[in-house]
Amino acid sequence: MTHVTEHPLVQGGRSTAFATACVRGAVAAGLGLGALAVLVIAAWISSPFPDSGAGGALHVAAGLWLLAHGVDLIRTDTLSGLPAPLGAAPLLLVALPAWLLHRTARDTLDPADPTRPRPTPGGAVGAVSGGYLLVGATVVVYSASGPLPADLVAAGLWLPAVVVGAAGAGVWTALGRPLPRRREAAVALRAAGLGLATLLGGGAVLVAVSLAWHAGAAHTAYLTLAGEWSGRAAVLLLVLALLPNAAVWGAAYGLGPGFALGTGALATPLGLAGVPALPPFPLLAALPADARGTWPHWSAAAVPFAAAAVQGWYAGRAGRDLAARGTVLAALGAAWATGAALTALAAASGGPIGSGRLADFGPVGWQTGAAAVLWGAAVGVPVACGVRAWGRRGVRGPEGAGAGGGPVVPVPPVPSVPPVPSVAPVVAGAPTGYEDLDELDGRLGGVDDAGYEPYDFLPAAWESPPRGPGPEPAAGPGPVPGAAPGPGAGPAPGDGAPG
Is the pTM of the predicted complex or chain greater than 0.85? Predict the structure, then answer.
């Protein structure tokens, strides 16, 4: 007899699923690298003055692929001859490998063919990440012989972190995006996502307004960088790739900490401190140049205020059935989650773009995240409590009703039961209104005695109605022995009881 031994990482006992996931991860890495290689080769072909051959263009593509994963590069062909770091990655460039990893991990755990074996969630993350990192290690070795070699320390830290994080997000999507079972945590995560989207959207609006205000300077910088159409197309692609970075910078500016414009230079809503080191670039031309901030700069604080208010509104609306303590915890959790996400985004949106004064460029991650937490706690928590109180304004109940001060469900009133009409007793010999059976038969319309059914002709009110909660009626005297029963079961309508 053949026994099938199940692999600890694979459901169904087939290790081919694990190997297939590894291959899918390697294919995803190859697709991202190939897409960047096509763009770089196209720019190299269209350039009227190429500096190197096809090998140099492929090395540049490999460096850009590593930069998209958060790996710092080292520029060796500088004017001074000294190597200069390059760590500011365009966030739109990061979206390409992240999307490929996310989709690969999702499809690995949720295949189109239900009969095909699939790995467990942990096995899917490990297999896809392992195949992807094998290609990544090869690219790191290949870039060492080019003009943009990778920093080995950054490659060992950030490349696995980005790959595992994107693959884990894909597995989480395949599982249906489950949230923590604790209600406060689920509400906090949803409110944090809404607040973060509002904050980044507001930052993008600030950048758009500033670019429109400084449109002349931005246009001049764009024309200065390149005179040929191929160079201008490359600059335009770089500007588009850096637009998400600009949105994060705008959010950091509105939050208060601002961003660094070189060593010793800082731009905040209060003004510009130090002397910025700004290379000619269209997006950098939109930066505020006033030494002291004015009301247009201070109005940027409306962005984090609106984001915190939206965040608190959702926490209060979704937490109406929670206790007051639960709503406060949800709002605080949303503030901390927003701060953590913004810390990572701020750190990824900036970085060194050269040596010397250009080594410090962009927002500081921990300062931006701490400011987001403070805004969420100062504005989001009161808004959440107010929205919860407004939503529960009609709920009243005794003290202590509901677990943890929860809502009291009103009990609908019990409908009143009509009183039972009193039935007069029948006394032998008392007049019933129908002294003669022939008279009763005439009133009933002449019923044939052969098909006579007495219960079909009794009035509906003869049956006793359902007894209500009131006192039972007094029992009448029983029938007199020996007396003949009357023709009717009770007094005729309109007749009262005998006196």
Answer: no
